[in-house]
Every structure is written in C-alpha cells, then in structure tokens.
Specification:
Layout lengths: L10 H4 L3 H5 L2 H8 L6 E5 L7 H6 L5 E6 L2 H10 L8 E5 L12 E7 L8 H11 E12 L16 H10 L3 E5 L6 E7 L4
Parallel strand pairs: 1-2, 1-4, 2-3, 4-5
Antiparallel strand pairs: 5-7, 6-7
Length: 193
C-alpha cells in the first residue's frame, strides 16, 4: 500500500464525530444545490460518510459507493442502514477506473481522495466520463496548510492545483467554496455540448 493511501485498519477514524464539524455532509449537500439527482458516484467512499446522508436526500436515487479497498467495501456492506441497502451500491474500483457506464451520474463526489491519487488526471477523466452533460463533480480535500488533523502537508494539494486539474479535464464553471474550516471545496460542471 502506498504511503499516501488511507490504511483500512484505521476505519474508525472515518466515522469520528469530529468529521461532522470539519466536513459537514449537510453543508456540502446544500452548497451543491443539486436538482433532484438520480445517481451519485462517490469515489473513495470509505465508510459511506457522505454516501449515507446523500442517499437520504434521494429517495428515488442511487449512490454508487466506490472504493479500491475490499475491507472498506465489506465493512460498508455489513454496516449500511437497512432502509438504504438497495439505494447505496458498493462498487469495487481500480486506482484509475470505475466500472460503471458512461453518462450516468448527476454528481461525482471525491472527498479526502485527491491527496492519495497516483494519477489525478486519470480519475478526473473518469469523473468526466461518468457524468451526464451538465452534471457536477465535487472535490473536497485537505487545505495545503497546517490543520489540527489530516495527512502530511507535503502530500496535500493546493486549491489552484485542483482548479488547474479540473480545467485540464475539460470541466467548466469551476467554483471554490470557502465553507469548510480545514478543506478546499470545489465544484465544476461537465459542459452540455
């Protein structure tokens, strides 16, 4: 396992109550102003910290909870709330590829993933492929400055670098939101044409 990758042995960390203060899923949901989304692809889902609350906003929708780690997907499958079991679908993905059809997603979400990526351009290209025209990608990752927790500073990614990578992947309407205390939060749109 790469030094940058999250260690599945530390799963409990992903559900720590402090995360709600730092990465409030409700705040992120409201900020994205999604218009009745039917499909969300959560890349690097971990314990479903976002997949679960987002799914609750989509009674008719599906969240594909994607991760590369078998242990994480198994934990998720065993711990999904009963009422969401047919709406959150765990998906085993590869480092650079998600085995889902093109053009299915209203939102591709990536939280605390970017600093772990071996090939950010490849996964942004996958996000672009997965999105419907007009669909959004949202990236939430640790600010490249000291915070009370988080990954080492040297592997964090600057907001400008995230903006540049989104632009290089052909996303438009790139916006940075300053609503999270320890994280960059960017959204961008796949063009309609």
């Amino acid at each position: 396992m790469s030094e940058k990758k999250f260690n599945p042995a530390k799963l409990a960390k992903l559900n720590h109550p402090d995360r709600y203060d730092r990465e409030n899923p409700e705040r992120i949901w409201k900020t994205l102003k999604l218009d009745n989304p039917r499909v969300i692809v959560d890349i690097g889902t971990g314990t479903g910290f976002f997949a679960i609350p987002f799914s609750r906003h989509m009674p008719e929708g599906t969240v594909y909870a994607c991760d590369i780690a078998d242990e994480i997907l198994q934990w998720l499958e065993e711990n999904l709330p009963e009422e969401l079991r047919d709406r959150i679908i765990p998906v085993k993905m590869e480092e650079r590829a998600v085995p889902l059809p093109a053009g299915i997603a209203d939102l591709v979400l990536m939280v605390n993933l970017h600093h772990e990526l071996e090939d950010a351009a490849a996964i942004l290209s996958e996000a672009f492929r997965l999105l419907k025209p007009g669909g959004k990608v949202a990236i939430v990752d640790w600010k490249d400055e000291p915070t009370e927790s988080g990954p080492p500073l040297e592997i964090r990614v600057s907001e400008q670098s995230l903006i540049d990578q989104l632009a290089a992947a052909c996303f438009e309407q790139i916006r940075a939101h300053a609503s999270l205390p320890c994280h960059h939060f960017l959204e961008a749109v796949k063009p309609q044409h």
